[in-house]
Each structure stands twice: as structure tokens, then as C-alpha cells.
Request: fold
Amino acid sequence: MDEHDGRSSTDYYKRFKEKFSNRDFDGGLDDLAKAVNLDPTNVELYIERADLNMLRAEYQEAVDDLTKIMDLNPEIMTLADAYDLRARAYELLGESEKAIADCTWVIEHGQATHQTFSRRGRLTERQGNYQDAIRDFTAAYNMQPDPLALLQRAALYSKVEQYQEAINDLSIFISDYPNTAYEITAYGLRAVAYQKVHMYPEALSDFEYIVNALGEEPLYIHFCIGLVYEKMGLMDKAIDEFRKSTLNPDHADYERISNILNMI
Reply:
């Protein structure tokens, strides 16, 4: 029993639950701290506090509690959940190597979900390890067909110049997951991939779909369409599209296209 007010760890935990349901997170955190002090080997209390600190964006505090859970060495499923959540906290703290290590622990112990593989894929992509990231997104998609994992893998295929693989993924995305928030992104990525493999009519079709879908003047798309027409040798059409567009000074073709327009 607590020497100050006679409450037990269970009492404080129940009061935490009440405060949490009323969105009194600070008060709930205080009660969890008291519960932990009275029952310092109770894994569930550390899990609850880590979850609460993640909700409060106090990621280092969550890491501390999750590490304590590992020190207590609970059964494998609880341990894997702790590693998975700590990987997420490390990712949000910008500590990619530690996040990758935690994801790898979960994967090597046979406890991974599709989210574990997707997280490691994102992290390895940021490090420039594109082929490793592709393998992780593939594993994630095979575990649970997630359109975002498919789209991320397609983008990676384009980065490593495996354009036909990118086209395949993007075609599946467009066919199987229509009207999503990422539909225009998928059409744009596929249009660029089509350009890279010299499938210019297909690229034009995707760019034109974007123009129609946006319902406004997407000036950057006209520039992309102009580049396709130029590759096809249709310079009159290319110039018409360039004139509709706003040239980006940072684009590799900016100076060349500007010179063409200035000469007309």
C-alpha cells in the first residue's frame, strides 16, 4: 500500500484509466508513475505509459519505458511489441540506425507484421539502400496487400531504373485501388516511367489523365507533356505545351527549353 494515501498500484491504474478516458493525459501520466513506483516489475504499466508518451509525442520517455520492458524480459509477443513500438519511437526521434535494429530484431524473431517491414523499408530507403527497401516493401505487401507499400516500391523501382517493374506496380495500383488520395501520384510516376522506356503514347495518356482529373491548369504537367512530344519529334506540339507551362529554373531542361522558346 502507498504510505501517503493508502492507494495500491491497482487503484492508481484504475484512476489512470478514468483520467485517460476523459483525455486528462497529464493527470493520467502522474497516476501511472505512482502505479509504477508501487509495482516496478509490472510490464503492463510500462506498456501503458509508453503508449501514453507516444500519444503525447514524448518519444524519449517512451523509449525509456520500452527499454525497461526489455530488461524485464517478458514473453516473446510482449517483447516483440516493445521492440516494434520502440522502433517507431526511434524513427520519430530521427534515430534511424536504432529503429532499423529494432525492426530487424522483430523480423528475425518471427514476430513481424507488414508494418514492421514497411517501417524498415522507409528507413533503409532514407539511407539510400534502395534494393534492401524494395525487399522490405515486397515482404510487407506479401503479408498484407497495402496500396501504399505497392506505391512506395514502385517509386523505388524507378529510383534504381527498373522502370518496367515500376510500371507493373503502378498499373496494379491504378487498377486495384482507384480514387485514392495517391491516384494522381501513381499516374505521374507511371507517366515518367513510360517516358524512360520510350513508351511515349502511354506517357501522354497518363499525363493527360492528370490534366483532366485536376480540373485546373496544372502548368508543370504541360511542361512534362512538352518533353514527351519533343522526344517523339513533334516539335510544334511540344512548343505549344511549353508555352502553356511555367518553367522551373531548377529543372535540368530549363535553359534549353527557354532558348528554344526565345528563338521562336
Observations:
- Residues 76-93 form the longest helix (18 residues).
- The mean pLDDT is 91.
- Residues 96 and 126 are 9 Å apart (CA to CA).
